[in-house]
Design brief:
heterodimer; A: mainly alpha; 19 helices; B: Penicillin-binding protein 2a (Domain 2); 3 domains; five-stranded antiparallel β-sheet; four-stranded mixed β-sheet
């Protein structure tokens, strides 16, 4: 071993990192462009240039922040790398014309077969009712196309208010994407600047303002979306994305304020019975109540794990009692098993996912079974086709998976870049977790510590739930993969979280500089 | 081109991995004590919980991605994974040529891919050869040679140097893979002629080149169009047509009683034993010794009274004449005289009672060609042997077997392995009989066509001198009518085996037409048309011009 160096000397050069990211992204997209053109896809050169410019915007963020920033830029580099890989894979998926390849194939073959068999010399046996065959088959394929179109429209029809729908439809999708992306990047700069302001941090720490806001936001979103269908909004925007940030801030403020009560250090006051009960049971109630309440409200198991994990980790970091961590994990695991007993009570689509998760081969392998496992099984086919190093960018066939753009983007990466590529993604997120924990470690007050813990946990659990669902480690849920999945709003919220983390890192750096 | 993309993939993977390793190394160094539980224990626990969770993800993923060994998954993947079909649809599969290796006479090719459309498999001969070539469809799978030669047509095999090079190119350099072409022994024109001549009959036509074993024609009818397999309505009509069994390859899998076409085999056995008896045969028919059962009668016993004549028996008759007259009486007696063991030995040499050995040099394809075996089961008594000798009882032969029988006689008694691929070297399967015997049997079969009263007189042609043997196999079939009554119907399968020319035969043909009537009238004209076409194509040119005897 070499001699111990002072820790602060080891640093990643952010300029190099960001330029490296841009180069990798452009290289990947060019690779997709070449492969796509050769294989008859429709990769757009304009999108390639647009994505290159968009990823270059990270460099602009760096240049804006560079002067005053005392924190760690590594977070920004990791996020840029993830976003870059996301751009490559989005570009790959969106350039393939045929999303459901198999059906296209069948249709093309059938149509061509009809043309052939309509020739006079080859119709000896088809002659009797050839015209009816032609007609019926054409009608059938027409109906199929109409039905598909209807289904596709239904996805966009949303249970959203008409005004919102009109607004979204009036904006072209390109500009919508670019605007939300630029807003997200601006929010990073803005939040980093804001976080160095003590008054801003104090206002964040006031829990009762945040509880009001949280409840208000929750009600608005629940009212806007019809809860029955796990409200999926325009382009995979789920309404409670924004709620994530507020609840983390609220919980951090709340826990920081009542730390003594939670750790049972506060003096016991006679007569205040509620307080007496709350001190030992409060954390458990929170762990149990928040996720379950949300589950009942939103009927989405993904949220149970996300909020459950969030509260468990935050309570554990606050109280340092192992029972909350392992007890909480045990409760979550048990709940997921107990839901299997709730057949008939729980909503059907949730039940279906749980049954598939518990044993995918259990039911007879008929058409109904195939319909229910279609998505996850296609994901397995994609994983299986990938192998160790994958098919190569633009050379795989991941487009047969429904929702491959948002929820199942990880399968597409696993097919085209293989297990190694998937491992790189997982380790990038792990690096992000390390960086988040480092901020927790260096923070000097409970509120900031809990805030950083909450944000880090939120990202990590979201990644875990998405990837775990895609590979069937846990039941499938409709959670997107942060930074990589397409989805303007979820990207925005993820960037807000990164903005907060960088802001907290900046505060730590500034304080360390003052102390030195 | 492809190799650049593959290298790019590795460059991206390794550069990100290296940079990521650096990031993680620096980050870990920047928080000393945290991974070893020495600073803030609760944070260390949280950290390790996340590390554990993420590694679990990778571990579980590696199961699905790499280590999976689950039968359910394998079956589901085989059934539902679209990748093989997409790969097949985007590959320029190899063409299948006929023996002339001519682009105008393709048996299977592909359409040129245009504006986003995938290359599509086309079959120029359509229904005429659909059983042999087969089909390939996303929902209905594959059949025929499309299935048999699949890996080769896709360009995955490494058997020859050329294929190896093609495979390497496909793997590393080509974005659109290209398959290997295959040249078959089938003759496009003959195949087409045979199918058209066959018309609405049910059955099969098989033609073999005796000297090499090349299969020139392999028709099975009723047929289907390979393109109609992809059209739902047409497919339903094909599979619901139970009466016709359109998908069944009768040429290789249909087993029919050979009828009188068994007689050359009996004659061969007798001549190999060295006997050529002259018998005086009366009108009473033949009763095998030791058993009291149905007598074997000549067909004149039925036909003479119809024409107002009295059947008085064949009288003094030798083998050659008996063959010309197709005397059941004579050959049943001859079969019993020859004896069970020699009959079976000769039948075995002709290819009965064993799997057909195709001339295929590739070890991975050996025995994969689905062909049913012809059977001549052991006979328990003289009665069975007598009836087997005239091709009834339990003797069953495929059309291919009948063609091979004719080919073995034509090729001086040497049976070649049937071959479907042109560039295989001819191989001997069995030495069936001596050259002397074969010359005698050939002479007999020539007389069947040319001698007075020969049953195959319809085969007489100016262009080429052919020899043959007709056969009419009787089958009793029970038909259930719609009102429930059952009726016994006697069906005559027309069978005909032949070869031409007599000296140095170039083609041997077997025709079977189910329920079409007599071999001489229903099956022989079909063979005749094929011979005429072959004459047009110059099959009989290189030898001496056939000198046609002017008789009758």
């Amino acid at each position: 071993m070499t001699e111990q160096k002072p820790t602060s000397q080891k640093k990643i050069n952010p300029l190099f990192g960001l330029i490296f990211t841009i180069l990798i992204t452009v290289l990947g997209m060019i690779s997709v462009y070449i492969a796509g053109n050769a294989r008859g896809y429709d990769p757009s050169l304009a999108v390639l240039v647009r994505n290159s410019l968009m990823i270059s915007a990270f460099l602009v963020v760096y240049l804006f922040l560079k002067r005053g920033y005392k924190g760690d830029f590594t977070i920004l580099i990791v996020v840029a790398l993830l976003t870059g890989i996301g751009f490559i894979i989005q570009y790959r998926i969106s350039s393939a014309i045929n999303i459901d390849f198999q059906k296209t194939l069948i249709r093309q073959y059938s149509a061509a077969g009809l043309e052939e068999s309509a020739l006079p010399d080859s119709t000896q046996h088809l002659a009797a009712s050839d015209s009816t065959v032609n007609k019926a088959s054409e009608e059938r394929s027409l109906q199929a196309i109409q039905k598909e179109a209807e289904q596709f429209l239904k996805l966009d029809k949303l249970k959203f208010s008409q005004v919102m729908q009109d607004f979204f439809n009036s904006v072209p999708s390109w500009s919508r994407l670019i605007i939300s992306y630029l807003i997200a990047l601006y929010l990073i700069i803005h939040l980093v600047r804001k976080c160095s302001d003590n008054r801003f941090m104090d206002s964040l720490a006031r829990p009762f303002f945040w509880v009001t806001l949280t409840v208000f936001l929750l009600f608005i979103f629940v009212a806007l979306s019809e809860v029955g269908t796990r409200g999926r909004f325009v382009y995979q925007m789920t309404p409670w994305e924004a709620f994530k940030v507020t609840i983390i801030i609220f919980l951090a403020g709340f826990f920081a304020k009542y730390k003594d009560e939670f750790t049972r250090k506060a003096p016991k006051i006679k007569g205040k019975r509620l307080q007496r009960i709350m001190i030992p049971w409060g954390p458990f109630l929170l762990i149990w109540l928040i996720p379950q309440l949300l589950f009942i409200l939103l009927k989405d198991f993904g949220q149970v794990i996300i909020y459950g994990g969030l509260v468990i980790i935050m309570v554990f970091v606050l109280t340092r009692k192992y029972i909350f961590l392992f007890g909480g994990i045990a409760i979550t695991v048990l709940t997921s098993r107990l839901i299997l007993l709730l057949e008939g009570i729980a909503p059907a689509h949730v039940m279906k996912r749980f049954i598939i998760w518990s044993n995918i081969w259990a039911e007879p392998h008929n058409n109904a079974w195939w319909d229910s496992v279609y998505q996850i099984m296609n994901s397995f086919f994609a994983l299986n086709a990938g192998g160790w190093t994958g098919a190569g960018l633009g050379l795989g066939y991941p487009t047969n998976i429904p929702l491959v753009v948002s929820d199942f983007v990880y399968s597409a990466i696993s097919e085209e870049l293989g297990f190694f590529g998937a491992a790189i993604i997982v380790f990038l997120y792990l690096a992000l977790v390390f960086l988040g924990i480092r901020i927790v470690l260096e923070s000097d007050n409970d509120f900031e510590r809990l805030l950083a813990t909450g944000f880090t946990t939120m990202l990590a659990v979201q990644v875990f739930v998405n990837i775990g669902g895609v590979i069937k480690l846990i039941p499938l849920t409709g959670i997107t993969l942060p930074f990589i999945s397409r989805g303007g709003f979820s990207f925005l919220v993820s960037m807000v979280i990164i903005g907060f983390l960088m802001g907290l890192s900046h505060r730590n750096g500034k304080r360390a500089a003052l102390e030195a | 081109m492809l190799i650049i993309l593959i290298i790019t993939k590795y460059v991206i993977l390794f550069s990100i991995a290296a940079y990521l390793a650096r990031i993680i190394y620096v980050t870990v160094k920047n928080m000393p004590g945290l991974f070893s539980f020495t600073r803030r224990k609760e944070l260390s626990v949280v950290l390790w919980v996340f590390i554990f969770a993420f590694l679990t993800l990778l571990g579980y993923q590696s199961y699905w991605q790499i280590f999976i060994d689950n039968e359910n998954f394998t079956v589901t993947k085989k059934l539902h994974d679209p990748r093989p079909w997409i790969i097949e649809a985007t590959t320029l599969k190899g063409k299948i040529y006929d023996r002339t290796h001519d682009d105008a006479k393709l048996l299977a090719g592909y359409s040129t891919p245009s504006n986003g459309r995938l290359p599509r498999r086309i079959y120029p001969l359509g229904e005429a050869i659909s059983h042999l070539i087969g089909y390939s469809d996303v929902e209905r799978g594959k059949s025929g040679l499309e299935k048999f030669y699949f890996e080769r047509l896709m360009g995955w095999t490494d058997f020859t140097e050329e294929e190896k090079q093609n495979n390497i190119n496909n793997k590393y350099f080509r974005l659109t893979p290209v398959g290997n072409d295959i040249v078959l022994t089938i003759d496009y024109e003959l195949q087409k002629t045979a199918y058209e001549a066959f018309g609405d009959n049910k059955g099969a036509v098989v033609a073999i080149e005796p000297a090499t074993g090349d299969v020139l024609v392999l028709v099975s009818a009723p047929s289907f169009h390979p393109d109609s397999v992809s059209v739902d309505e047409a497919w339903v009509r094909i599979i619901r047509d139970e009466e016709n069994q359109r998908l069944y390859n009768r040429a290789l899998k249909g087993r029919y009683p050979p009828g009188s076409t068994m007689k050359p085999l009996v004659a061969t056995a007798a001549l190999e034993k060295g006997i050529d008896p002259v018998w005086n045969l009366g009108p009473a028919g033949y009763r095998p010794p030791g058993v009291r059962r149905k007598r074997v009668h000549d067909h004149e016993r039925v036909s003479y009274p119809k024409r107002g004549l009295v059947w008085r028996g064949q009288g003094e008759i030798n083998m050659s004449r008996a063959m010309v007259k197709s005397s059941n009486h004579y050959f049943a007696r001859l079969g019993v005289t020859v004896g069970d063991s020699l009959m079976h030995e000769i039948a075995r040499r002709f290819g009965y009672n064993q799997a057909v050995e195709w001339n295929i040099s590739r070890p991975e394809l050996k025995g994969k060609m689905v062909t049913f075996r012809s059977s001549f089961p052991p006979t328990k008594n003289a009665h069975e042997l007598a009836w087997s000798s005239i091709g009834q009882e339990k003797v069953l032969a495929t059309p291919l077997q009948l063609a091979m029988t004719a080919a073995a006689i034509a090729n001086n008694g040497i049976l070649m392995k049937p071959k479907i691929e042109l560039n295989e070297a001819p191989e001997v399967w069995h030495k069936v009989m001596s050259e002397e015997t074969s010359r005698k049997v050939k002479k007999m079969m020539r007389d069947v066509v040319w001698a007075r009263g020969g049953t195959a007189w319809r085969m007489r042609m100016k262009e080429v001198e052919a020899g043959g043997k007709t056969g009419t196999a009787e089958l009793t079939k029970i038909i259930t009518h719609k009102d429930g009554t059952k009726e016994k119907v006697i069906i005559n399968n027309a069978v005909f085996i032949s070869f031409a020319p007599i000296e140095n035969p170039k083609i041997a043909i077997a025709v079977i037409a189910e329920g079409a009537g007599y071999g001489g009238s229903a099956a022989a004209p079909i063979a005749k048309q094929v011979y005429l076409k072959a004459y047009e194509l110059g099959y009989f040119d290189d030898g001496t011009e056939a000198d046609v005897p002017e008789k009758n």
